[in-house]
Amino acid sequence: MTSTAWIEKADKYIMKTYGRYPLVPVKGEGCYLWDADGKKYLDFLAGVAVNNLGHCHPKVTAALASQAAELIHCSNYYHIPQQIELAELLCGLSFADKAFFCNSGAEANEAAIKLARKYSRENYGLDRYEIITAISSFHGRTMATVSATGQEKVQKFFDPLLHGFRHVPFNDAKALREAIGPCTCAIMLEPIQGEGGVVVPDASYFQEVRQLCNEQNLILIFDEVQVGMGRTGKMFAHEHFGITPDIMTLAKALAGGAPIGTMLATDKLAEAFTPGTHGSTFGGNPLVTAAGVATIRAIMEEGILNHTEEIGEYLMGELEALKHKFPGLIKEVRGIGLMIGVELSIPGGDIVKTALSRGLLLNCAQEKVLRFVPPLIVGKKEVDEMLATFTGILQEL
Description:
39% of the residues lie in helices and 17% in strands. The protein contains 14 helices and 15 strands.
């Protein structure tokens, strides 16, 4: 079936919750996608930072195929070996002692919100429920995570929002300190704001946030749904800032493209989740956790973190050169590793559409920030290919 035929069928049967581009991917390999008409695309979006190991990484696909032939799903009333193995890997790599598995980043953040509130009320009283988040943050599409998100465009139409959230400017420790009140139980932040436009805070910001939480007995939650799993050149983005949270959420890249989310926490907090307080039917089933185990092993065994740091520096340098070449179009280049944003002086939507027509997949956040989040296996060859296309578009503008 042609791309046009698929799109016509989609218009008939699929709800229009996405502003979709006229692309129908049917095959992926490494950094490339092919559509239903056979056209090849260089993917610098990676499923919005999901396909960190590229499309159809052999170790992940082998794990999925092998597990699917043995056991796809069973109830969380039972002990699941693949889930236990993944939890052990994640806790061994992080500050955490325990893991809770679910299906998405939004669900992981829901779990973090519930755990923070339950722990705080049990230890500090019923009035400790408020969570402070950042303006321009993005934490998900459920009612609780929409309420936590600091973007009006995400919250529009869904009043009344869940009460108990307060939003302050990102990278502003003074505003954060002033927002803390007797009802505050937690601070929930992204180490780097992705949907907010790839915003990287000052090095001292999170040091002050951690100190605030220690002083006021507040829980520090890091939403690493987009920036975790090697995206910045370290397994977890908060490692760049020299601190640890009390709770961390992961999803997107955790299982190489299979739908999974997890909330990690210290033993002290995890004890607040007792049988019946939270759960997820599909969360951490054998299929997705087998993919998660394979993904983490591939990242560690194939030198992905060092490679990400090296290629990220190369890409940042080349984009900075374009900034000097096109000062009227590019205002700023920012990011860490392969989490990079290029802020433009004009809306970026047309650039994304033009790039698509030329076989390059990009994304625009906050209207004027192009987001470059390619697979972490990307090499200089693919970077140079992207730069040639991108430079050509800028020259025409």
